[in-house]
Amino acid sequence: MGQTQSTPLSFLLTNFGDVKSRGHDLSLDIRKRKLITFCRSEWPTFGVGWPTEGTFCLPIVLKIKSRIFLPGKEGHPDQIPYILVWQDLVENPPPWMAPFLSSGTYKILTARPTKPPKPQTSTTPILSDSQDLLLIEPPPYQHPPLREAEALPALLPNENNSPGPAGRTRGRTQRDPGFRHPDSTTALPLREIGPPDETGNPRLQYWPFSTSDLYNWKTQNARFSDNPKDLIGLLDSVMFTHQPTWDDCQQLLWILFTTEERERIQLEARKLVPGDDGQPTANPDLINAAFPLTRPPQDDWNYNTGEGRGRLLIYRQTLMAGLRAATRKPTNLAKVYSIVQGKTESPSSYLERLMEAFRQYTPMDPEAPENQAAVVMSFVNQAAPDIKKKLQKLEDLEGKQIQDLLLPRSMGRKRWDGSSQTSPSPIHRNQTRGRSCTCPAISHAHRGQNWYHSTYSPAS
Prior knowledge:
Helices cover 41% and strands 3% of the residues. The chain is an all-alpha fold. The chain folds into three domains: 1-110 and 128-136, Gamma-retroviral matrix domain (DNA polymerase, domain 1); 204-326, Human Immunodeficiency Virus Type 1 Capsid Protein (Orthogonal Bundle); 333-455, no CATH class. The strands form two sheets. A two-stranded antiparallel sheet has the order 1-2. The radius of gyration is 29 Å and the shape is elongated. It comes from Phocoena sinus (Vaquita). It is found in: Host cell membrane.
């Protein structure tokens, strides 16, 4: 046996190369000196039972994490990478951690000792990672009291159910003597467990986000400032499937957005807090109550009460409204006017670039009927010179839909392929005399690059 006793911290420092690689896998950069400082000097002062030698007890790790993620001056954003890597190592331990976890060299602290201890009937070692969330809340079994070992198999999710981009998330660890844990599992949102409470409301079980899910979302989606549609679509799904709590929402904001983006989203959301009449209010008390920037009293935001669920629903809806409002950049029509059709560019490609410019640099929705006239005029005025002249000869130009300009043959003109027969929209294929006819936006290249310009002629 060795002369010195290994501790969780010394174990990580001995294998720091692998620890650092795990951080890189999560897009995080950690340094050995800071890890030592946080573990020995910072985290023990949080008052949640963190020992100076560190621990692999997940409930304590999660308590440290919740303190680090507190907003404002109470939080510790510089420590976020370190606790996330530590959590990921506990949830998904590498092979070299197995001897330490099975050696029983550290104590497992019970977070909520509300039940008398049960006699041990198995010689299988007690693993910290197998007791992760079970120490915080009871497992979501659907039947009256079952033995823990019998209830666990019912917790395994149905992998065939994958609702939206947030599917297969909320990963959780399994009780597995081989120390192997799935990278991700089916979403486990706030879900009903057991019988309703005395008021008839269902009891809900909470499962925190896993570190790997958060960073998969971060790496698999474009930055919010570059392409907000990706993250809006993701969070729409997350809000529906996960029913995140206030703490969850802060974690999403911290991980998926930059500081500037996060502040802009919160600012816009607070402008949209609904008042008693359902319209945005300017009452600061109502705004702070419905969309707090600091952690609200948990009794008022308890997801197991009707009032708490109502507050969380309004908060999530307001947050998504702020998210959409934050995508609107200051109006810059010069950017829109700079979109001109290339000499050999297809009409659909040109239109797509133009509409994207409207979305990015103006507050208008280019697909809305009330904005069609503005889009049509920009489409005409910024078209290639020869096409612009022909389009300007059309009657009632401002009253036309943008599709009319993409379908000159629908107004009595020649077909795109040169014949006089009319055909459907250019964005569809039409079978004619046993062969496929494709719109010029898709196939004009193989007919000659100037084909669109030579055939686009309005009726006389």
